Every structure is written in structure tokens, then in C-alpha cells.
Amino acid sequence: MVDLTVVILTKNEENNLRKCIESFKGIVKRFVIVDSYSTDGTKALCEELSKSVNLDFYENKFISHADQMNWGLTNTNITTKWTMRIDADEELTPELVKEIEEKLPHIEDNTKGIVLKRRVYFMGRWIKHGGKYPEFLLRIFRSGYGFCEQKLMDEHMVLSEGDTITFNHDIIDNNNKNLEWWTHKHNWYSNREVLDYQQKVLNKSENDNLINSNTNKGQAAKKRFIKNNGYYKLPLFFRARLYFMYRYYIRLGFLDGKEGKIYHFLQAYWYRFLVDSKIYECGKFNIKMEDQGDLK
Fold it and tell me: Sorting pLDDT into bands at 50, 70 and 90, what band is 201?
């Protein structure tokens, strides 16, 4: 068993949570669930799962993913050497389970974080193209050295100090919920993204731990820099079309079949166009986007 606590944020995740926890194959010491007062069977499922794994269930009012994650890191008595963040709709490949079990106990002291590769599934299909694979994300860190950057959207785990290494095998993002839920979630995301844009990009905020810290350099920091200093400099609406063309044609998203066509169109064009439309509306009518709370 690895000296590792896994923190999972939940809100109505009874359809995903079991496969997430069971994918660890019993190698971790403890699971911490921080729930945003689910209205489905998530709490009952956690009570059931706690009979076979060391699982503690907490409830906390949702403000943002960053606030919720940082609350979980500081208020749930984590005593293990390592902590991991994973989403309820994610799971580990068997190869990653073995890699964590074999490598994590022998990591050098100066290494404070482990970067993992994520593969995304959509409608049951692995989205391999369009720049979606691999995504490199800091997900495992020495307890006390990792925190979630204070951001409304596209928030990442960052380190206060130390080096990172990258493991070879993948986590899988494979949400079991349907397309109606997916589009509803992304409509909610779009409001949060506009608010984040108003707060961070328009105000030219320098408080960006991902970009400005020498400790947290990598794929996520590069993407954030390009988005803030390249994508957002392009004209409204045109940039959404350009981004879709880049993803679907130049980065070969069309090779992902019908599922990929739906995914890349909705995620790279429809969603980005929706964000631009709301930015335009807010500018035209002098609207300040309100905090959205949790996903209903």
C-alpha cells in the first residue's frame, strides 16, 4: 500500500465515483471525498464504499473548484507523505496503478510533484487527436507542497516549491453522463469563463501562479500563456472558428470519427463561440457576470 491520500470532489457523481475508486485496486491508504451536497446517491455510495476502502466523506458549500480543493487539502487531516487529486469521472489505467505502486515510495526528496498524462473519452471513444492527447497535469504531490491555483476556470494544481517528474502511464477521463448534461455543464462553464476573463484578462492580473512561477512550468502553463496573450488578442467569433479549424484539420481531429467530430465541434467551436457571445453581450450592455455557484 502506497503512503497516498486521494482527494475527490463530488456533486451528483453516483454514476462515476465507484469506477474511479475501484480503479486504484486498493493501493492507497485513504480516500477523501469533498461533496457539494449532492442530491443523488453519492453520499449513500460513499457509505457503501467505506466498508471496503478507507474513505472519509465531507460536505462543504461549493464556491469554486479551487476553493473546494484547497478546503479539502487543509481541512481533512491528510497525514500521508503524498496527496493526489483526481476527478470523480476519471480513473487509473492498470499500468498507472502499477507504476504508482512501484515508483512513488522511491521518489527523490527534491521532487515534490508527479505529472500524469490524461486521455479523454467522449461517447465511449478515446479522443486521440486535435491536440487532446496527451494532456500533462500535475496530479500527485508531496502533502503540503501542492495547492489549487485560485482561478474560476481551467484551474490547475501548482507547487509551492520543488521539481516534478512525469510518469509514463495514463489517467482516463471517461464521464458516464449524457450529452444533455455535457452541454448543460459547458453552458455553466461559459459563464464562469466570462467572469474569469473579466477578472483576470481584462484587468491584466499578474497573480497567475501557473504562468509567473518558475516552479510550475509545463504544458498547462504554455497553454495558459497562449490563451491569454494570443487567443484573446484575436477578434471575437473569428478566434472560435480559427481554433476549431486548427483542432479539427491541422491537429487531425477528423481522425477521431463521428464522436470526435461532435466533440471537437462542440468543445472547440460551439463552446468558444458561446463564451465570445457572452463576452460581447456583457460589453454591449455593461454587464458584470455574477458568480455562478455550483452546477445545478
Answer: confident
